[in-house]
Every structure is written in structure tokens, then in C-alpha cells.
Amino acid sequence: MERKTYKNVIENKNCIIVALAEMMKSTPFSEIKVVDVCKKAGVSKNTFYRHFTGLSDVIYQAVGEIDEQLFASVANISAENPKLIIDLICNAWYKNRVLFRGFTQSSVIYITQEFIKKDAEKFFCLLHGGDGIEFFSEFSSAALCSFLCLWSRHDFADSPEKISLLIYKCLCENVFDAMRSFIAAQDC
């Protein structure tokens, strides 16, 4: 019997993630079965359940890992450079576009949006020490998610640089000014 190596385990997990994302490009999430994902990925159901509790868990883990890598990069960036943070987010989405094409399906977008909301909260905490972030993180995460999902639905036709600049202009140039005014009004 062949001994499983760490590399095989990681490859199996990645095959499952990619298989689900590819299936989601053409099939509604609610119609996808674990057995179909296993067949496409070339793994057994036991292998699937060794890594995941169900199909939603595949998305949670995949997006969570991307998110962890993203914030490991963002941690070293100055709060005075929000454009660079947005660049990193757009580049992460573009790099993982195969996954996000499927994971932005309307029936499961809430999973991706949860991570974007968490990212927006971290981002505003980084920039403003947590003052008045609840409203703005809700707004910015919804707007950021909308931009990224629309980009995904258009098959990532525009470059990450172009999308990043658009997001920066729409969110940062306007929202940060509004947020500063809001915080100042609260301090009065």
C-alpha cells in the first residue's frame, strides 16, 4: 500500500477545491453533490470528508486560506497606503480567479462576503484605530464585494490594476472623507 505524503494530501485538497469551483461556473451550488465533486477531483468520498465537512466548508476553507495569505501581506503595509492594500486584494482575487468565478455564485456569495466584511473591518481598524468602523466596514465590504463579484462575472476582463484604481477612487477618496467627518461629528 502506498503511503500518503503531505504533498498528496495538499494536492487532494486543492483538487477538491478547484473541482467545486469549476463545477460552480456552470451548475448552481444547490445542484452539486459531493460524489460529483469527488469524481471530478479524482478522489474518494473518504478523502473528501477527511478534509471537509461538506460543500460549503470547501468554500469557507478555500476563501479563508486566501484571506490569511492576504492579511499576512497586508500586516506589513503602512496604514497611510490604502491603495496598496486594495492592490493586494485585487491581485489575490485575480491570482485565484478560477476559484472566485465559482465562489461568487449568488447562492454562496454570503460566504465570500463574510470574509470581505472581516477584511474591511481589519482595514478600517488599521487606518483609524477602530473609531466608528461599524457603519463604514458594512458599507465598504458591500461595495468591495460588489466590485469584486462584478469583476468575476465579467471573467476578470480588466486588469487587477484597473479594478484596484476604480475601487480606490470610489471607496477611499469619498468614503474616508465621509468617515473622518462622521468621527469628528461623534467627538463633538
Count of distinct strands: 0
Identify low-pLDDT runs.
none
What's the story with the biggest beta sheet? none
Report the β-strand fraction as a percent range.
under 5%
Order of helices and strands: HHHHHHHHH
What is the tally of helical segments?
A: 9
Radius of gyration, in angstroms, nearest whole number: 19 Å
What can you tell me about this protein's structure?
By secondary structure, the chain is mainly alpha-helical. The chain has helices at residues 6-24, 34-41, 45-51, 55-74, 82-95, 97-103, 109-128, 133-153, 160-187. The protein is built from 9 helices and no strands. Helix 1 packs across helix 4 (55-74), helix 1 crosses helix 6 and helix 5 (82-95) crosses helix 9 (160-187).
Quickly list its features:
single chain, 188 residues, mainly alpha, 0% strand
Summarize the structure.
This protein has 188 residues and is mainly alpha-helical. The chain has helices at residues 6-24, 34-41, 45-51, 55-74, 82-95, 97-103, 109-128, 133-153, 160-187. The N and C termini lie far apart (72 Å).
Secondary-structure map:
Elements: H1 6-24, H2 34-41, H3 45-51, H4 55-74, H5 82-95, H6 97-103, H7 109-128, H8 133-153, H9 160-187
Helix pairs in contact: 1-2, 1-4, 1-6, 4-5, 4-7, 5-9, 7-8, 8-9
